Amino acid sequence: MKTYLVTGGAGFIGANFVQYMLNKYTDIKIINVDSLTYAGNLENLISVEHNQNYEFIQADIRDEKAINQIFEKYDVDYVVNFAAESHVDRSIENPSIFVETNVNGTLNLLNLAKKHWELEDDQFKPGKKYVQISTDEVYGSLGETGYFTETTPLDPHSPYSSSKASGDLMVKAYADTYKMPVNITRCSNNYGPYQFPEKLIPLVINNCLKKENIPVYGDGMNIRDWLFVEDHCKAIDMVINDGVVGEVYNIGGHNEKTNIDIIKTIIAHLNKKVDSSISEELITFVKDRKGHDRRYGIDPTKISKELNWLPDTPFEEGIIKTIDWYLDNREWTNKIVSGEYKDYYSNMYSQK
Ligand code: NAD
Ligand code: TYD
Fold it and tell me: What reaction(s) does this enzyme catalyze (predicted)?
Protein backbone atom coordinates (compact mmCIF):
# COMPACT_ATOMS: atom_id res chain seq x y z
CA MET A 1 0.00 0.00 0.00
CA LYS A 2 1.68 3.19 -1.19
CA THR A 3 1.35 6.38 0.86
CA TYR A 4 1.04 9.67 -0.99
CA LEU A 5 1.72 12.97 0.73
CA VAL A 6 -0.31 15.32 -1.45
CA THR A 7 0.22 19.00 -0.64
CA GLY A 8 -2.27 21.65 -1.75
CA GLY A 9 -4.95 18.99 -2.18
CA ALA A 10 -7.76 21.37 -1.20
CA GLY A 11 -7.14 23.57 -4.24
CA PHE A 12 -8.38 23.15 -7.79
CA ILE A 13 -6.03 20.58 -9.32
CA GLY A 14 -5.08 18.96 -6.02
CA ALA A 15 -8.72 18.23 -5.13
CA ASN A 16 -9.35 16.78 -8.57
CA PHE A 17 -6.20 14.65 -8.20
CA VAL A 18 -7.17 13.32 -4.76
CA GLN A 19 -10.60 12.31 -6.08
CA TYR A 20 -9.15 10.81 -9.26
CA MET A 21 -6.68 8.67 -7.32
CA LEU A 22 -9.13 7.47 -4.67
CA ASN A 23 -11.64 6.54 -7.39
CA LYS A 24 -8.99 4.66 -9.32
CA TYR A 25 -7.12 2.85 -6.54
CA THR A 26 -8.38 1.15 -3.40
CA ASP A 27 -4.90 0.19 -2.21
CA ILE A 28 -3.33 3.60 -1.65
CA LYS A 29 -3.32 6.03 1.25
CA ILE A 30 -3.52 9.78 0.64
CA ILE A 31 -2.48 12.30 3.26
CA ASN A 32 -3.64 15.70 2.06
CA VAL A 33 -1.71 18.58 3.62
CA ASP A 34 -3.06 22.03 2.94
CA SER A 35 -2.86 25.27 4.90
CA LEU A 36 -6.25 26.37 3.50
CA THR A 37 -5.35 29.76 2.07
CA TYR A 38 -8.08 31.71 0.29
CA ALA A 39 -7.77 29.14 -2.55
CA GLY A 40 -8.10 26.03 -0.38
CA ASN A 41 -11.60 24.70 0.18
CA LEU A 42 -12.50 21.50 1.99
CA GLU A 43 -15.87 21.50 0.24
CA ASN A 44 -13.94 20.34 -2.81
CA LEU A 45 -13.28 17.07 -0.99
CA ILE A 46 -16.66 16.21 0.49
CA SER A 47 -16.90 13.12 -1.73
CA VAL A 48 -13.79 11.56 -0.15
CA GLU A 49 -13.81 12.87 3.41
CA HIS A 50 -15.09 9.54 4.82
CA ASN A 51 -12.86 7.40 2.64
CA GLN A 52 -10.70 5.23 4.94
CA ASN A 53 -7.72 5.72 2.64
CA TYR A 54 -7.86 9.51 2.97
CA GLU A 55 -6.74 11.88 5.68
CA PHE A 56 -6.62 15.67 5.81
CA ILE A 57 -4.05 17.58 7.85
CA GLN A 58 -4.11 21.36 7.98
CA ALA A 59 -0.49 22.50 7.80
CA ASP A 60 1.72 24.89 5.90
CA ILE A 61 4.40 23.42 3.62
CA ARG A 62 6.81 25.99 5.07
CA ASP A 63 6.28 24.62 8.60
CA GLU A 64 9.28 22.40 9.29
CA LYS A 65 7.97 20.97 12.54
CA ALA A 66 4.50 20.12 11.25
CA ILE A 67 5.74 18.52 8.02
CA ASN A 68 8.47 16.62 9.88
CA GLN A 69 5.84 15.16 12.21
CA ILE A 70 3.91 13.89 9.19
CA PHE A 71 7.02 12.15 7.82
CA GLU A 72 7.62 10.66 11.28
CA LYS A 73 4.08 9.38 11.61
CA TYR A 74 3.67 7.96 8.08
CA ASP A 75 6.01 6.02 5.85
CA VAL A 76 5.55 8.42 2.92
CA ASP A 77 6.38 6.91 -0.49
CA TYR A 78 5.52 9.83 -2.74
CA VAL A 79 5.38 13.57 -2.19
CA VAL A 80 3.18 15.25 -4.82
CA ASN A 81 3.53 18.99 -4.36
CA PHE A 82 0.58 21.01 -5.69
CA ALA A 83 0.71 23.60 -2.88
CA ALA A 84 1.40 27.00 -4.32
CA GLU A 85 0.26 30.54 -4.71
CA SER A 86 -1.05 30.21 -8.24
CA HIS A 87 -2.60 33.42 -9.54
CA VAL A 88 -0.48 35.67 -11.79
CA ASP A 89 -2.49 38.84 -11.05
CA ARG A 90 -2.01 38.40 -7.30
CA SER A 91 1.71 37.80 -7.85
CA ILE A 92 1.98 41.15 -9.63
CA GLU A 93 0.40 42.87 -6.59
CA ASN A 94 2.29 40.93 -3.90
CA PRO A 95 5.28 38.85 -5.02
CA SER A 96 6.63 38.00 -1.54
CA ILE A 97 4.14 35.31 -0.59
CA PHE A 98 4.88 33.62 -3.93
CA VAL A 99 8.55 33.28 -3.00
CA GLU A 100 7.67 32.15 0.51
CA THR A 101 5.36 29.34 -0.54
CA ASN A 102 6.54 28.39 -4.02
CA VAL A 103 10.27 28.51 -3.25
CA ASN A 104 10.77 28.23 0.53
CA GLY A 105 7.83 25.81 0.91
CA THR A 106 9.21 23.59 -1.84
CA LEU A 107 12.65 23.70 -0.24
CA ASN A 108 11.22 22.66 3.13
CA LEU A 109 9.45 19.68 1.54
CA LEU A 110 12.62 18.65 -0.29
CA ASN A 111 14.69 18.89 2.90
CA LEU A 112 12.29 16.79 4.91
CA ALA A 113 11.83 14.19 2.18
CA LYS A 114 15.63 13.92 1.97
CA LYS A 115 15.96 13.64 5.72
CA HIS A 116 13.48 10.77 5.91
CA TRP A 117 14.34 8.98 2.66
CA GLU A 118 18.13 9.18 2.43
CA LEU A 119 20.05 6.05 3.48
CA GLU A 120 23.60 7.28 2.91
CA ASP A 121 25.35 9.52 0.37
CA ASP A 122 23.63 9.22 -3.03
CA GLN A 123 21.37 6.40 -1.77
CA PHE A 124 17.68 6.75 -1.12
CA LYS A 125 15.22 4.14 0.16
CA PRO A 126 13.80 2.30 -2.86
CA GLY A 127 10.39 3.25 -4.24
CA LYS A 128 10.42 6.86 -3.02
CA LYS A 129 9.81 9.84 -5.27
CA TYR A 130 9.22 13.59 -5.01
CA VAL A 131 6.99 15.00 -7.77
CA GLN A 132 6.85 18.75 -8.29
CA ILE A 133 3.73 20.02 -10.06
CA SER A 134 4.91 22.94 -12.14
CA THR A 135 3.72 24.99 -15.05
CA ASP A 136 4.54 25.76 -18.68
CA GLU A 137 4.71 29.43 -17.63
CA VAL A 138 8.33 28.83 -16.50
CA TYR A 139 9.31 28.74 -20.20
CA GLY A 140 8.07 32.29 -20.79
CA SER A 141 6.11 33.36 -23.84
CA LEU A 142 6.05 32.02 -27.41
CA GLY A 143 5.73 33.90 -30.67
CA GLU A 144 3.29 32.73 -33.32
CA THR A 145 5.15 29.48 -33.97
CA GLY A 146 6.93 26.77 -32.00
CA TYR A 147 6.18 24.91 -28.78
CA PHE A 148 7.66 24.46 -25.32
CA THR A 149 9.66 21.25 -25.01
CA GLU A 150 11.37 19.99 -21.85
CA THR A 151 14.65 21.51 -23.07
CA THR A 152 13.26 24.98 -23.78
CA PRO A 153 15.29 27.37 -21.59
CA LEU A 154 13.49 28.72 -18.53
CA ASP A 155 12.50 32.35 -19.13
CA PRO A 156 9.75 33.22 -16.67
CA HIS A 157 8.31 36.73 -16.66
CA SER A 158 5.79 37.14 -13.85
CA PRO A 159 6.57 36.87 -10.14
CA TYR A 160 4.35 33.74 -10.19
CA SER A 161 6.22 31.98 -12.98
CA SER A 162 9.59 33.12 -11.61
CA SER A 163 8.76 31.64 -8.22
CA LYS A 164 7.65 28.37 -9.88
CA ALA A 165 10.87 28.26 -11.93
CA SER A 166 12.88 28.85 -8.75
CA GLY A 167 11.04 26.01 -7.02
CA ASP A 168 11.78 23.76 -10.02
CA LEU A 169 15.47 24.66 -9.83
CA MET A 170 15.62 23.65 -6.17
CA VAL A 171 14.05 20.30 -7.11
CA LYS A 172 16.67 19.91 -9.86
CA ALA A 173 19.40 20.79 -7.34
CA TYR A 174 18.25 18.00 -5.00
CA ALA A 175 18.28 15.54 -7.89
CA ASP A 176 21.69 16.64 -9.20
CA THR A 177 23.42 17.13 -5.84
CA TYR A 178 21.94 14.44 -3.60
CA LYS A 179 20.59 12.05 -6.28
CA MET A 180 17.15 12.45 -4.81
CA PRO A 181 14.50 10.65 -6.94
CA VAL A 182 12.32 13.37 -8.43
CA ASN A 183 10.13 14.30 -11.37
CA ILE A 184 8.94 17.72 -12.44
CA THR A 185 5.74 18.08 -14.47
CA ARG A 186 4.97 21.26 -16.42
CA CYS A 187 1.40 21.56 -17.51
CA SER A 188 -0.52 24.07 -19.59
CA ASN A 189 -3.62 25.94 -18.34
CA ASN A 190 -6.12 23.60 -16.68
CA TYR A 191 -9.87 23.97 -16.66
CA GLY A 192 -12.63 21.97 -15.00
CA PRO A 193 -14.64 21.66 -11.77
CA TYR A 194 -13.51 23.38 -8.55
CA GLN A 195 -11.36 26.08 -10.17
CA PHE A 196 -11.30 29.21 -8.05
CA PRO A 197 -13.36 31.96 -9.77
CA GLU A 198 -10.44 34.41 -10.03
CA LYS A 199 -9.15 32.41 -13.04
CA LEU A 200 -10.40 33.17 -16.55
CA ILE A 201 -12.92 30.38 -17.24
CA PRO A 202 -14.82 30.33 -13.91
CA LEU A 203 -14.63 34.14 -13.74
CA VAL A 204 -16.31 34.44 -17.14
CA ILE A 205 -18.99 31.89 -16.22
CA ASN A 206 -19.73 33.68 -12.95
CA ASN A 207 -19.83 37.14 -14.52
CA CYS A 208 -22.18 35.91 -17.26
CA LEU A 209 -24.54 34.42 -14.69
CA LYS A 210 -24.47 37.67 -12.70
CA LYS A 211 -24.72 39.74 -15.93
CA GLU A 212 -21.54 41.58 -14.98
CA ASN A 213 -18.95 42.89 -17.42
CA ILE A 214 -16.33 40.40 -18.55
CA PRO A 215 -12.91 42.05 -18.20
CA VAL A 216 -10.71 41.11 -21.17
CA TYR A 217 -7.07 42.07 -20.77
CA GLY A 218 -5.47 43.88 -23.72
CA ASP A 219 -6.75 42.79 -27.12
CA GLY A 220 -8.00 39.38 -25.93
CA MET A 221 -5.74 37.63 -28.45
CA ASN A 222 -3.38 36.04 -25.92
CA ILE A 223 -3.26 32.29 -26.40
CA ARG A 224 -3.37 29.59 -23.74
CA ASP A 225 -3.17 25.82 -24.29
CA TRP A 226 -6.14 24.43 -22.34
CA LEU A 227 -6.17 20.98 -20.71
CA PHE A 228 -9.11 19.34 -18.94
CA VAL A 229 -8.05 18.83 -15.32
CA GLU A 230 -8.83 15.09 -15.28
CA ASP A 231 -6.41 14.56 -18.16
CA HIS A 232 -3.77 16.35 -16.11
CA CYS A 233 -4.49 14.07 -13.12
CA LYS A 234 -4.12 11.01 -15.36
CA ALA A 235 -0.73 12.28 -16.57
CA ILE A 236 0.53 12.92 -13.02
CA ASP A 237 -0.46 9.39 -11.99
CA MET A 238 1.52 8.02 -14.96
CA VAL A 239 4.56 10.15 -14.12
CA ILE A 240 4.50 9.00 -10.48
CA ASN A 241 4.34 5.34 -11.50
CA ASP A 242 6.40 5.23 -14.67
CA GLY A 243 8.23 8.54 -15.08
CA VAL A 244 11.97 8.10 -15.42
CA VAL A 245 13.63 9.39 -12.26
CA GLY A 246 15.15 12.86 -12.69
CA GLU A 247 13.11 13.71 -15.78
CA VAL A 248 10.86 16.65 -16.59
CA TYR A 249 7.55 15.96 -18.38
CA ASN A 250 5.53 18.60 -20.21
CA ILE A 251 1.78 17.99 -20.18
CA GLY A 252 -0.56 19.51 -22.77
CA GLY A 253 -2.98 18.46 -25.48
CA HIS A 254 -2.55 20.95 -28.36
CA ASN A 255 -5.66 22.91 -27.45
CA GLU A 256 -4.61 26.47 -28.12
CA LYS A 257 -7.32 29.10 -27.96
CA THR A 258 -7.34 32.88 -27.78
CA ASN A 259 -8.94 34.31 -24.66
CA ILE A 260 -11.65 35.95 -26.72
CA ASP A 261 -12.54 32.59 -28.31
CA ILE A 262 -12.88 31.00 -24.89
CA ILE A 263 -15.08 33.84 -23.69
CA LYS A 264 -17.33 33.69 -26.76
CA THR A 265 -17.70 29.90 -26.39
CA ILE A 266 -18.85 30.30 -22.79
CA ILE A 267 -21.25 33.11 -23.66
CA ALA A 268 -22.77 31.10 -26.52
CA HIS A 269 -23.44 28.06 -24.31
CA LEU A 270 -24.95 30.09 -21.47
CA ASN A 271 -27.00 32.14 -23.92
CA LYS A 272 -28.58 28.95 -25.24
CA LYS A 273 -28.86 27.06 -21.99
CA VAL A 274 -29.62 29.71 -19.35
CA ASP A 275 -30.68 33.09 -20.60
CA SER A 276 -30.77 34.69 -24.03
CA SER A 277 -29.78 38.04 -22.51
CA ILE A 278 -26.29 36.67 -21.78
CA SER A 279 -24.52 38.11 -24.80
CA GLU A 280 -21.23 39.37 -26.17
CA GLU A 281 -22.25 42.83 -25.00
CA LEU A 282 -20.83 41.83 -21.61
CA ILE A 283 -17.33 41.74 -23.10
CA THR A 284 -15.31 44.73 -21.85
CA PHE A 285 -11.74 45.34 -22.92
CA VAL A 286 -9.65 46.59 -19.98
CA LYS A 287 -6.05 47.60 -19.35
CA ASP A 288 -3.64 44.79 -20.14
CA ARG A 289 -1.97 42.69 -17.44
CA LYS A 290 1.61 43.91 -16.80
CA GLY A 291 4.14 41.68 -18.59
CA HIS A 292 1.28 39.64 -20.11
CA ASP A 293 2.68 36.50 -21.80
CA ARG A 294 1.36 36.30 -25.35
CA ARG A 295 1.23 32.60 -26.10
CA TYR A 296 1.77 29.26 -24.35
CA GLY A 297 1.89 25.99 -26.30
CA ILE A 298 3.12 22.61 -25.08
CA ASP A 299 4.85 19.94 -27.12
CA PRO A 300 3.68 16.75 -25.37
CA THR A 301 5.78 14.35 -27.50
CA LYS A 302 7.90 13.11 -24.61
CA ILE A 303 5.06 12.11 -22.27
CA SER A 304 3.03 10.60 -25.11
CA LYS A 305 5.94 8.52 -26.43
CA GLU A 306 7.50 7.49 -23.10
CA LEU A 307 4.41 7.05 -20.96
CA ASN A 308 1.73 6.60 -23.60
CA TRP A 309 -0.26 9.55 -22.25
CA LEU A 310 -2.81 11.31 -24.41
CA PRO A 311 -5.64 13.54 -23.26
CA ASP A 312 -9.11 11.91 -23.40
CA THR A 313 -11.26 15.04 -23.37
CA PRO A 314 -11.61 17.21 -26.48
CA PHE A 315 -11.93 20.90 -25.60
CA GLU A 316 -15.46 21.17 -27.02
CA GLU A 317 -16.61 18.42 -24.63
CA GLY A 318 -14.56 19.55 -21.61
CA ILE A 319 -15.72 23.14 -21.74
CA ILE A 320 -19.39 22.12 -21.78
CA LYS A 321 -18.80 19.69 -18.88
CA THR A 322 -17.10 22.51 -16.99
CA ILE A 323 -19.78 25.13 -17.63
CA ASP A 324 -22.46 22.62 -16.66
CA TRP A 325 -20.60 21.77 -13.44
CA TYR A 326 -20.61 25.47 -12.48
CA LEU A 327 -24.32 25.66 -13.32
CA ASP A 328 -25.05 22.63 -11.12
CA ASN A 329 -22.88 23.97 -8.29
CA ARG A 330 -23.78 27.64 -8.14
CA GLU A 331 -23.76 27.52 -4.33
CA TRP A 332 -20.07 26.54 -4.42
CA THR A 333 -19.19 29.68 -6.40
CA ASN A 334 -21.64 31.91 -4.53
CA LYS A 335 -20.05 31.09 -1.18
CA ILE A 336 -16.62 32.01 -2.52
CA VAL A 337 -17.62 35.20 -4.29
CA SER A 338 -19.47 36.51 -1.26
CA GLY A 339 -16.37 36.30 1.01
CA GLU A 340 -12.84 37.67 0.71
CA TYR A 341 -13.15 37.38 -3.06
CA LYS A 342 -15.54 40.34 -3.17
CA ASP A 343 -12.83 42.72 -1.86
CA TYR A 344 -10.21 41.11 -4.09
CA TYR A 345 -12.40 41.60 -7.15
CA SER A 346 -13.23 45.23 -6.50
CA ASN A 347 -9.60 46.11 -5.66
CA MET A 348 -8.10 44.24 -8.58
CA TYR A 349 -10.55 45.32 -11.25
CA SER A 350 -11.03 48.92 -10.15
CA GLN A 351 -7.43 49.49 -11.29
CA LYS A 352 -8.12 48.17 -14.79
P1 NAD B 1 -4.93 26.62 -6.34
O2 NAD B 1 -4.52 28.02 -6.05
O3 NAD B 1 -6.34 26.33 -6.74
O4 NAD B 1 -4.63 25.71 -5.06
C5 NAD B 1 -3.46 25.82 -4.32
C6 NAD B 1 -3.65 25.06 -3.00
O7 NAD B 1 -2.43 25.14 -2.26
C8 NAD B 1 -4.77 25.64 -2.12
O9 NAD B 1 -5.55 24.60 -1.60
C10 NAD B 1 -3.99 26.35 -1.01
O11 NAD B 1 -4.69 26.37 0.23
C12 NAD B 1 -2.73 25.49 -0.92
N13 NAD B 1 -1.59 26.24 -0.37
C14 NAD B 1 -1.14 27.46 -0.77
N15 NAD B 1 -0.08 27.82 -0.03
C16 NAD B 1 0.16 26.79 0.84
C17 NAD B 1 1.13 26.55 1.86
N18 NAD B 1 2.07 27.46 2.13
N19 NAD B 1 1.08 25.39 2.54
C20 NAD B 1 0.12 24.47 2.27
N21 NAD B 1 -0.84 24.65 1.34
C22 NAD B 1 -0.81 25.79 0.62
O23 NAD B 1 -3.91 26.10 -7.43
P24 NAD B 1 -4.13 25.05 -8.64
O25 NAD B 1 -4.66 25.76 -9.81
O26 NAD B 1 -4.85 23.87 -8.09
O27 NAD B 1 -2.62 24.67 -8.95
C28 NAD B 1 -1.99 23.57 -8.28
C29 NAD B 1 -0.54 23.48 -8.75
O30 NAD B 1 -0.51 23.28 -10.16
C31 NAD B 1 0.27 24.75 -8.49
O32 NAD B 1 1.55 24.37 -8.07
C33 NAD B 1 0.31 25.45 -9.83
O34 NAD B 1 1.50 26.20 -9.96
C35 NAD B 1 0.28 24.27 -10.78
N36 NAD B 1 -0.32 24.53 -12.11
C37 NAD B 1 -1.58 25.05 -12.22
C38 NAD B 1 -2.14 25.23 -13.48
C39 NAD B 1 -3.55 25.78 -13.64
O40 NAD B 1 -3.97 26.00 -14.77
N41 NAD B 1 -4.32 25.94 -12.59
C42 NAD B 1 -1.42 24.90 -14.62
C43 NAD B 1 -0.14 24.36 -14.48
C44 NAD B 1 0.39 24.17 -13.21
P1 TYD C 1 -5.55 33.07 -15.93
O2 TYD C 1 -6.77 32.20 -15.80
O3 TYD C 1 -5.26 34.05 -14.84
O4 TYD C 1 -4.32 32.07 -16.16
P5 TYD C 1 -2.78 32.41 -16.57
O6 TYD C 1 -2.53 33.85 -16.43
O7 TYD C 1 -2.02 31.61 -15.55
O8 TYD C 1 -2.63 31.89 -17.96
O9 TYD C 1 -5.65 33.87 -17.29
C10 TYD C 1 -5.78 33.22 -18.54
C11 TYD C 1 -5.75 34.27 -19.62
O12 TYD C 1 -6.90 35.10 -19.51
C13 TYD C 1 -4.56 35.22 -19.51
O14 TYD C 1 -4.11 35.54 -20.82
C15 TYD C 1 -5.11 36.46 -18.84
C16 TYD C 1 -6.55 36.50 -19.34
N17 TYD C 1 -7.54 37.07 -18.38
C18 TYD C 1 -8.39 38.10 -18.81
O19 TYD C 1 -8.35 38.55 -19.97
N20 TYD C 1 -9.30 38.60 -17.91
C21 TYD C 1 -9.39 38.14 -16.62
O22 TYD C 1 -10.22 38.68 -15.84
C23 TYD C 1 -8.51 37.09 -16.21
C24 TYD C 1 -8.56 36.54 -14.82
C25 TYD C 1 -7.61 36.58 -17.13
Answer: dTDP-alpha-D-glucose = dTDP-4-dehydro-6-deoxy-alpha-D-glucose + H2O
Of residues 20, 54, 160, 341, which has the active-site annotation? 160
27 is catalytic: no
Helices (H), ranges, 211-339: 229-242, 259-273, 301-307, 315-328, 330-337
Q: Which domain holds residue 232?
A: 2-349
Residue of 195, 200, 216, 322 to mutate, ligand 2, most atoms within 8 A of C-beta: 200
The H-or-E segment that residue 54 falls in is strand 54-58
**Based on the structure, what is the number of domains in the chain?**
1
pLDDT band at residue 352 under the 50/70/90 scheme:
confident
Strand partners, 123: 120
74 is catalytic: no
Question: What CATH number is given to the structural domain containing 315?
Answer: 3.40.50.720
Each residue's pLDDT tens digit, 55-76: 999 999 999 999 999 999 999 9
